[in-house]
Design goal:
Blueprint (H helix, E strand, L loop, with lengths): L7 E11 L4 H10 L3 E12 L9 E3 L3 H12 L5 E4 L5 H13 L4 E4 L4 E2 L2 E2 L7 H9 L3 E2 L3 H8 L10 H10 L6 E9 L2 E7 L4 E6 L8 H14 L4 H18 L25
Parallel strand pairs: 1-2, 1-4, 4-5, 5-8, 8-9
Antiparallel strand pairs: 2-3, 6-7, 9-10, 10-11
Helix pairs in contact: 1-7, 2-3, 7-8
Length: 274
């Protein structure tokens, strides 16, 4: 029996060795979902930058351009290009070049640059470049802070209603045809709001624990589900559910800086036979 060829996903993101985020999460998740992830690291960190001390850092300047040219010379065809942390204008131009070289690919942008109402260190001057990249994308996946920054709005205060969340997601259509905004507080729930061919809200009970890397986990599962042919609302629901299950499966006494224990649950993402 011959299986269908795996969808190929070019993943432009940083690689953090310890801490369960970025490519160390994205690659195994997409592989478990039956895709072929092609990792293109923008930078290499010994750990992520939140709570594990000062990481060792190796920038990958020049590597990305050479990698794209090599893939093009091989005649590689990507089904999807998924971008995450882009720490420099060079990285943003690299992602834009990938979009240009493979125009038929599904272009997914996670505009990693801010959270909890403020920019990440060194990202304040990258907003205009990220807005330009979002205009070239098919789908963007900002959190609530990033959505507000992309729109040039103040960060919403307090809880959001369904109507306010859907309006926020819909407003992003000026940048990109489809958007899912994550991390929206709604009472006892932490929610996502999506807009595109249809509008929707997905809710999960809010837990009292916060972990790095859950945004990367969410985006990877959502992308894999889309490549299986799921509608955006169904893909969002699957991604939110997997993140919630991974948090629930993590020992609450374990250091939160090490991320969620998603590895034992990867089998749930595998394609079903038949």
């Amino acid at each position: 029996m011959h299986l269908q060829a795996p969808k190929t996903v070019l993943c432009i993101h940083d690689l953090s060795g310890l801490g369960r985020c970025s490519l160390s999460v994205i690659v195994p998740v997409l592989a478990a979902m039956g895709c072929q992830p092609v990792a293109l690291p923008t930078a290499i960190f010994s750990t992520h930058t939140g709570g594990l001390g000062q990481p060792a850092v190796q920038l990958c300047q020049g590597y990305g351009e050479a990698a794209l040219e090599h893939y093009r010379s091989l005649g590689v065809s990507f089904d999807c290009i998924y971008t995450g942390y882009l720490a420099s204008e060079e990285d943003q131009h690299l992602a834009a070049k990938a979009f240009y070289l493979w125009p038929q690919a599904l272009k997914v942008v996670d505009p990693v640059m801010a959270d909890h109402g403020r920019f990440y260190a060194g990202m304040e001057d990258k907003l205009a470049g990220m807005q330009a990249l979002c205009r070239s994308a098919d789908l963007i996946l900002p959190n609530l802070t990033e959505a507000s920054l992309l729109l040039g709005r103040p960060m919403p205060e307090g809880e959001l209603s369904d109507e306010a969340a859907l309006e926020l997601a819909g407003s992003l259509s000026a940048l990109c045809p489809q958007a899912v905004v994550t991390g929206i507080p709604m009472g006892r729930h932490l929610s996502c709001a999506g807009a595109g061919r249809s509008s929707f809200v997905v809710r999960r009970l809010k837990l009292d624990r916060s972990y790095p890397g859950t945004g990367d986990l969410f985006a990877a599962v959502l992308t894999g589900a889309l490549l299986r042919g799921n509608a955006l609302s169904a893909a969002t629901d699957a991604a939110a559910g997997f993140v919630a299950d991974s948090i629930a499966a993590t020992d609450p006494e374990a250091p939160t800086a090490l991320g969620v224990w998603f590895e034992p649950l990867l089998g749930r993402l595998a394609p079903r036979e038949g």
